[in-house]
User: Fold this.
Amino acid sequence: MQGQIGVSQATFLIVDDVPTIRLILRRAIAIAAPQAVVCSAGTVGEARQLLAGNTITVVITDYHLPDGNGFDVVDAARRIDKTMPIILMSADATIAELGRIVGASNFIAKPFDMPHLLQLLGQASPAAA
Assistant:
């Protein structure tokens, strides 16, 4: 788990158990929303702690996590903020529709299409609004 977050900035929470994916997403956010603060978690439990202890404005979560799944992260985020943008990721495209049903705003398939990822991140950033 990384990052204590300020309240006045766009704050992204990345949830993925693969450190390389978290690094790629950090770099993509730096391009799409350069002023954003980014924190990351490798598990649902860590994500819940960060959501409870910080003002998160955007969540990006993988579906497959070691202690649950991305739907658990979506549920935890929605309990805090009904309108926050939540991007669900998975190599399994069949998760996309289920993700929307449980409250995800968008879905992106792995491996990432970088232009599409950058577009979603830019749209999700509160600074873009």
